[in-house]
Specification:
The chain is mainly alpha-helical. About 60% of the residues lie in helices and about 0% in strands. The chain has seven helices and no strands. Helix 2 runs antiparallel to helix 3 and helix 4 runs antiparallel to helix 5. The longest helix has 18 residues. The N and C termini lie far apart (about 35 Å).
Length: about 160
C-alpha cells in the first residue's frame, strides 16, 4: 500500500531516522507510478494484473526505464523480492544510474525486505549523488550513518 506523501520528507518525532523511514513510497515525481496502475483501490489479484501489464509493456519496449522501475515496485509489494531487485537493477542500468528514485526504491528493498543494510546505505548515497539538492539531505545523511552504526553493532 503506497503512501500519499513523499517518504523522503518524513521526520520522526522521536528523532530516530530509521524508525521514520517508510516501507513504501508514493508515485515518482512525474506523477506516473504504481499508484496510477489499474485496479485501484487495490484488490486481490490487482498487483498480479499490474505485473502482467508491465511485462507486456517491457516486451513491446525492452528499453523502458519506467516499465522496469514500476515492475520492480509491484514485485516488491507482492513480496517477490529477488525479482524486484532484478527489475530495479535493470531500470538502473537502462538509466545509466542517473535516476534517484531507482536508488531510493532499491534502498527500501535492501533495508526493509532483504536485510542488506550496507547495500541500502550505498543506494542512499547514490540517491544523494544523483539528487544533490535533496530537500532532506541532512536527514538522509543521518539515516546512512545510523544504518551503518547499527550494522557495526550487529556484527
Amino acid at each position: 500500500q503506497s503512501s500519499s506523501r513523499d517518504p523522503r520528507s518524513t521526520v520522526s518525532s522521536s528523532g530516530s531516522a530509521v524508525a521514520a523511514w517508510p516501507v513504501t513510497t508514493s508515485a515518482n515525481g512525474s506523477g506516473f507510478g504504481v499508484d496510477t496502475l489499474p485496479c485501484l483501490p487495490p484488490r486481490r489479484g490487482c498487483r498480479t494484473a499490474s505485473s502482467a501489464a508491465l511485462e507486456k509493456a517491457i516486451a513491446l519496449n525492452p528499453s523502458s526505464v519506467n516499465s522496469y522501475y514500476l515492475l520492480g515496485k509491484v514485485q516488491r509489494e507482492t513480496r517477490e523480492y529477488e525479482k524486484a531487485e532484478t527489475s530495479l537493477k535493470k531500470a538502473d542500468a537502462l538509466a545509466d544510474g542517473k535516476l534517484p528514485d531507482i536508488h531510493w526504491e532499491l534502498a527500501l528493498l535492501y533495508y526493509h525486505d532483504l536485510d542488506r543494510h550496507e547495500d541500502a546505505a550505498r543506494r542512499l548515497e547514490l540517491y544523494l549523488k544523483t539528487n544533490p539538492k535533496a530537500e532532506n539531505r541532512g536527514q538522509i545523511e543521518k539515516l546512512i550513518k545510523t544504518i551503518r552504526e547499527n550494522a557495526r553493532r550487529k556484527n
